[in-house]
Amino acid sequence: MKILALAGGVGGAKLVDGLAQILPPENLTVIVNTGDDFEYWGLKVCPDLDTVCYTLAGLANPDTGWGRADETWHVFESVTALGGDSWFRLGDRDLGLHLERTQRLREGESLSEITRDFCQAWGVRPTVLPMSDDLIPTMVTTNEGVLPFQEYFVQRKCQPRVSGFNFMNIERSEPAPGVLHALQESDLVVICPSNPWVSIDPILAVPTLKSALSSRPIVGVSPIIGGKAVKGPAARMYRELGIQPSALAVAQHYQNLITGFVFDTVDVAQDDDIRKLDIQTLVTDTLMKTSYDRRRLAQDVLQFYEGMIVSSKKFGGKA
Ligand code: GDP
Questions:
Q1: Which of 37, 125, 140, 294 is 20 to 30 A away from residue 303, measured at CA?
Q2: 55: domain CATH number?
Q3: What are the pocket residues of ligand 1 if the criterion is a CB atom closer than 6 Å to any ligand atom?
Q4: Which domain range does residue 70 map to?
Q5: Confidence (pTM)
Q6: Predicted confidence (pLDDT) per residue in 217-256, tens digit
C-alpha cells in the first residue's frame, strides 16, 4: 500500500516516523509544509522540512521536537555576544545544514533537489518533498498587525491575537516536482496530526495539489486531544478564531476532504457528532510519547483504512 503523508513539523514528524517504521521506504512519500520557511542570519531555514528529515534520519532532538540531538550553541552565543538577532535559536550542527542549503539555493538548485540530496546523505529512504519549490510565506493576521509566521510564533511567542492567515503567492505556486505523481500513485493520503491552520492548510492551498487531492481517499488524524494541543498554538488559534478547539472542530475543518478521521479515546463522546459529518471514525490512543506509540498509531491508521475499503464502496481511486 502506497501512502502519501501531509505533514508539518513536530506532530507530523512523529506519525511519519511511525509510518516509516512499518512501510517499505518506496511506499512512503511525505509532503511537508514550507509556509514556515524564512530567512534568518542570511540563511534559508525550513523548520518543518528539517524536523521531518532529522526525525527520519534519527538526528532529531527528542526533548525539543525541533533541531538536532547532541547540539552545541557556540555560533549562537558568538552572534548574540555581538548584538545579533537571538530570537530564533540555531545550533551549531543545525547550522551546517542551513549554510549548505542556502549556498546551493544561491547557485540555482531547487529546494526539492537539495532535500533529496540531503536525505540521501542522511540515509533517509522514504521520499520527502517540500510542498513547493516556490516561496509561499505564511502571514498571520493579528490584533498587532500582519506578522510573518516565525515572528508571530517564535519572536512574539504566539501572544498577538490571531484573526486569520494568508499564504502569500499561493495562487501562483506549483507543487514541487514529484508531488503530483506521488499523489496519483498513492492508495491513501494521511493528514498527520499537525496544526490544521498553519501546517496543513498551506499544503492544501497549493492550487493543483488541492484539486488532485479531491480524487484520493484521505484519513486525517487529530492534533487536538481533550480540547488541547499536545504542543504549539493550534488550540489557541481555534479559540481566537471563535471556535471551540476539539477533535470535532478538526474533523469539521477537513470535512469536505476526508473520508476517515482518527482521534483520541479521551474524546470518544464526540464520535456521534463526527460520524454525522459523513466521516468514518477510529477512536484510539493518539498521544505519541515513545517510538512504539508512533508505530502503533501508524498501524492503527493503516488498519482503519483497510477496514474501510472492505466495508465501504465510498472510495474512488485505486482502493
Ligand atoms: P509544527 O509546525 O512544528 O508546529 O508542527 P506540527 O504542525 O506538525 O505539529 C503541531 C501539532 O502537533 C500540535 O497541534 C500538536 O497538538 C500536535 N501533536 C504533537 N504531538 C502529538 C501527538 O503525540 N499526538 C497527536 N495526536 N498530536 C500531536
A1: 125
A2: 3.40.50.10680
A3: 7-12, 14, 36, 48, 51, 193-195, 199, 222-223, 225, 229-232, 234, 286-288
A4: 3-141+168-315
A5: 0.96
A6: 999 999 999 999 999 999 999 999 999 999 999 999 999 9
